[in-house]
Write a sequence for this structure.
């Protein structure tokens, strides 16, 4: 079978390779991936920054964002059936003993992750995974279900922000929302906040006011600010940082108002030094900072549910977030995207 592979920790080793077709063991299913999303994590692995192949193997199949069809059941599988369309979660415990619903809190070194650490990913014609980590996709969301994995991180971060914000004092009533970044995480955060009933939402990025990103922000009732031209004004009750930039995270915290909650959704590898002195007084203003870079199966389920709601509420808006779609043979193009792109996807097969 064809598969998109790398040699982990070897820069620019990305190759479409013939790999053995896997067979499901007890408790597993064989998947036929339909679409696989590409993100910054994949780019980091391609650049040799991190990643690990399955034990005893040289190559790692990429792809941790996927929607797939179940085509074969291993022994003992009774929670899904052949023909079901599913989204697989990413993390699998190795020595972690937390329940399935809390695997996102496993300590480093106690788990494997599809397409990242010690488990092959889904950018292949076939893949295997444990059936208990699958989320069924209703037919009305199949065309956007590839967005579920990045959306799950957004769901977790926003859910924590609202629950923990109110846990401090029940009368907390956030209104103004700032989202830093208009990539896939930022756009999905916008979608979720609008579905949650927030009407005063500002999204910032560096694209022109006539760009696709600006138009999509305004299309569902939010305000867009091009920070190359204009400054962010005022303070916000909830600030969501979705760029992965240390400087942007620092800027986001500066705009967090008293009693506010900041949600950091990036992986900050740029190693820039920032002066946190001005932020140290924030604790006296009852500010809360939380982070999320992975999610539990519950957040995946929330994501699928919100994709269905968003298609009903916003029509074709969600699908517009997929700005680049290539075939498996054209895989290299998926890993090179520009400032105008939002989400790149490899179409492994058609439905």
């Amino acid at each position: 079978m064809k598969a998109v592979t790398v040699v982990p920790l070897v820069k620019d080793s990305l190759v479409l390779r013939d790999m053995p077709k896997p067979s499901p063991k007890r408790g597993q299913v064989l998947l036929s991936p339909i679409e696989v999303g590409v993100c910054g994590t994949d780019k980091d692995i391609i650049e040799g920054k991190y990643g690990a192949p399955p034990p005893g193997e040289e190559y790692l199949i990429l792809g941790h964002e996927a929607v797939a069809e179940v085509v074969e059941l291993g022994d003992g599988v009774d929670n899904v059936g052949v023909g079901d369309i599913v989204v697989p979660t990413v993390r699998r415990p190795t020595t972690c003993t937390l329940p399935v619903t809390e695997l996102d809190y496993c300590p480093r070194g106690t788990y494997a992750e599809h397409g990242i650490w010690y488990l092959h990913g889904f950018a292949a014609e076939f893949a295997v995974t444990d059936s208990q980590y699958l989320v069924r996709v209703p037919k009305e969301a199949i065309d956007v279900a590839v967005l579920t994995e990045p959306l799950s991180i957004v769901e977790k971060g926003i859910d924590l922000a609202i629950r923990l914000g109110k846990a401090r004092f029940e009368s907390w009533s956030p209104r103004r929302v700032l989202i830093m970044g208009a990539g896939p995480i930022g756009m999905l955060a916008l979608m979720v906040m609008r579905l949650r009933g927030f009407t005063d939402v500002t999204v910032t990025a560096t694209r022109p006011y006539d760009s696709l990103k600006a138009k999509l922000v305004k299309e569902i009732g939010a305000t867009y600010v091009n920070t190359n031209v204009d400054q962010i004004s005022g303070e916000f009750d909830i600030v969501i940082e979705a760029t992965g930039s240390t400087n942007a995270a620092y800027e986001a915290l500066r705009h967090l108002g008293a009693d506010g909650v900041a949600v950091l959704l990036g992986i900050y590898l740029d190693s820039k030094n920032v002066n946190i002195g001005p932020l140290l007084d924030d604790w006296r203003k009852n500010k809360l900072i939380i982070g999320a870079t992975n999610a539990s199966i519950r957040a995946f389920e929330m994501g699928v549910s919100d994709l269905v709601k968003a298609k009903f509420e916003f029509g074709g808006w969600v699908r517009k977030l997929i700005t680049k779609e290539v075939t498996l043979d054209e895989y290299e193009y998926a890993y090179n995207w520009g400032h105008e792109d939002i989400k790149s996807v490899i179409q492994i097969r058609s439905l």
The radius of gyration is 20 Å. The chain has a mean pLDDT of 95. The first strand starts at residue 2 and ends at 6. The chain has two domains: 2-136+318-347, 151-291.
